């Protein structure tokens, strides 16, 4: 456990920068076609976000207690009850394409 904390502390001291190659790599991973102006905008916007995170990272949090949530968590979910639903046949009539049980959609991945 102590090794993990030390590793985390070492990582936090790294200052990350975003460049055009990073943006182009992310765009390629997401199959996005972006132009040069958009690349420059993303470099600036993500750079601003990282600068803000780095600024927050400079704060001394050594005396703060660890928390999972900022507020006390309370279960706000209702009891799971079986209730009548929509008529499936009626819903399938509105589908551009269906197999009788579910909507059929065109594939989005190659």
Polypeptide structure, described:
By secondary structure, the chain is mainly alpha-helical. It has a domain at 1-60. 45% of the residues lie in helices and 0% in strands. The chain contains 4 helices and no strands. The protein has helices at residues 2-12, 20-29, 36-57, 88-93. The longest helix is centred in the middle third of the chain and has 22 residues, at 36-57. The radius of gyration is 24 Å and the shape is flat. The chain starts with a helix and ends in a 17-residue tail after the last helix. The model is unreliable at 1-10 (pLDDT under 50).
Shape: flat
What kind of oligomer do you see? single chain
- In total, the number of strands is 0
Beta strand % = under 5%
Helix content: 40-55%
End-to-end distance? 42 Å
Structural category is mainly alpha
Give the helix tally. Answer: 4
Mean pLDDT: 82
* Helix-strand pattern: HHHH
Poorly predicted spans: 1-10
What summary fits the major beta sheet? none
Topology summary:
Layout: H1 2-12, H2 20-29, H3 36-57, H4 88-93
Helix pairs in contact: 2-3
Features:
45% helix; 110 residues; mainly alpha
What is this structure, in a nutshell?
By secondary structure, the chain is mainly alpha-helical. 45% of the residues lie in helices and 0% in strands. The protein has a domain at 1-60.
